[in-house]
Amino acid sequence: MTKTYLDKTVIPFFQQQLTRLTLWVTVLLVLMLAYSLAQLTWLLFPASNNIEENGALLQPTLSRKATSGVKPTAVVNLASLHLFGTAAATNEKKSAVIAEDVPDTRLRLILRGVIATQDKDMARAIISEPGGEEKYYAVDDKLPGGALLKEIAADRVILQSRAGRMETLRLPKEFGGSGRATRGTATTRVNNKPTGRNKITPRISSAELREYRDKMLSNPQELVGLIRTRPVKENGQIKGYKLFPGKDRALFNRLGLRSGDVIVSVNGMELSDPASGLALLGQLSSATEMSVVVERRGQRQTVTLSLQ
User: What is the pLDDT of residue 231?
Assistant: First the structure.
């Protein structure tokens, strides 16, 4: 085997495969983190105190119907999300269906959040009974009390009662009509300059990572607990999320992570707000570049990858 053949064929091939592998590792990690942060959005409207400070991950239950319709290519459709209730940004075709004169429901249900999309098969509503567990519901799912979820808008949902009446369940007034609590801090952009020479070296095949990615898109509930997160505070403010091994420690290690690593920002988005998870999902769907800042033992490293 000649040196020219190695330089022109073999080495470039393995460099290309290594680049792809690094990309999949980072994408998987960010998807897991984004999903984990999305689970925390209930903090914007307090309910039961069911997230622990020891790194336990909030695990709302997804109905089978709420996930069965999501295809492996659904990540592309996230570009159309109006994440966590962007008021008055719903599809015009839906606004004709979701009429203003639909009476409010008397059912004892609380709408804690929405993921309103132009594709109703991907829309989700986070609903609970007073003091009960928050769950994700898709259109046509059955809700506590027997009503059916029929439509999901940016600031409310439409239910069909057992008697066949159409009723409205709105986001609480604390969300100020924008789908986001007034006490929530604004997501900020940061310019993190890493220090040190720590490198994340994955030891996992691209085929296995694609399998995890497909699970993430088709049924994210299957990945709950693979990586645990805990908010990290500095001067009373959340500065990032500390990562811990979950139910698959081997996966955590092969991703090149260490227990206690802190993800500080993704694409310049400071992870200081629980709502960042949903915003991050939407941003990554259309991003052409992804930059992840990880802090390890006080030193930061930035991994920048092209998504084109």
Answer: 77
| Prediction pTM value | 0.42
Its domain, for residue 157, covers 85-175
Nearest to 127 by CA among 193, 206, 200, 66: 66
Q: Which residues does 236 contact at the CB level (< 8 Å), separation at least 6?
A: none
Q: How confident is the model at residue 169 (pLDDT cuts 50, 70, 90)?
A: very high
Backbone angles phi, psi at 301, to 5 degrees: -135, 135
Residues 163 and 223 placed together within one structural domain of the fold: no
- 203-247 pLDDT, tens digit each: 555 566 556 655 655 555 565 667 777 778 888 777 888 888 877
pLDDT of amino acid 244: 83
On whether both 145 and 196 belong to a single domain, the answer is no
Structure tokens at 204: 């996992």
In a domain, 12, yes or no: no
Encoded tokens for 117: 């999309």
Q: What is the domain count for the chain?
A: 2
Strand 135-137 vs strand 61-62: parallel, antiparallel, or unpaired?
parallel
Neighbours of 11 (CB within 10 A): 11
For residues 156-172, average pLDDT: 91
* C-alpha pair distances (Å), 4 with each of 78, 106, 112: 45, 76, 62
CB 275 within 8 A of CB 44: yes
Residues 6 or more apart in contact with residue 85 via CB below 8 angstroms:
113, 114, 116, 154, 155, 171, 175, 178, 179, 180
pLDDT of residue 33: 57
- Asked, for residue 6, whether it belongs to a domain, the answer is no
DSSP class of residue 60 equals P
Summarised one tens digit per residue, pLDDT across range 64-82 is: 333 333 332 222 233 333 3
- The CATH number covering residue 160 comes to 2.30.30.830
